[in-house]
Write a structure and sequence with these properties.
It is a single chain. It contains four helices and two strands, in the order H-E-E-H-H-H. By secondary structure, the chain is mostly helical. Helix 1 packs antiparallel against helix 2 and helix 1 packs across helix 3. The longest helix has 21 residues. The relative contact order is 0.16.
């Protein structure tokens, strides 16, 4: 992806959606994967408003998350819908199911540990 493909600034809701995805991916990774985890380094073509460096994930989860972020940034729809409510599903086969698995597991995991503020995002 080059810098031309991400020309508009993300609004605060879109940035929050990406942070929630990164947080849920980090939770999923911590519980399901062993081995070294590193912070997700921001990419130049993502713009300066996306800082996900506090989330530590393995290489496999990093590849997944980078792909998901790039898909979100390339979304042609304005305003960008939440992916699960989108009429155009741009993930390659298997990725949509992986997002569902990560969101379902991490949402339940965090709610059982007192993060009831995530309840809204889990259902909508």
């Amino acid at each position: 992806m080059n810098a031309e493909t991400h020309t508009t600034a993300l609004d605060p809701k879109e940035i929050k959606d990406l942070r929630v995805l990164a947080h849920f991916t980090a939770v999923y990774c911590r519980v399901h994967h062993e081995g070294p985890r590193e912070a997700l380094s921001p990419r130049e073509d993502w713009g300066t408003e996306i800082d996900l460096s506090r989330f530590r994930i393995c290489e496999s989860c990093r590849e997944f998350l980078v792909y998901a972020i790039e898909r979100r940034l390339r979304c042609p729809l304005e305003p960008k819908p939440v992916c699960k409510h989108c009429r155009i599903h741009c993930y390659r086969p298997g990725h949509r199911e992986k997002v569902r698995e990560i969101m379902r597991f991490s949402g339940k995991y965090l709610m059982r540990r007192g993060r009831l503020d995530l309840l809204w995002h889990y259902f909508f």
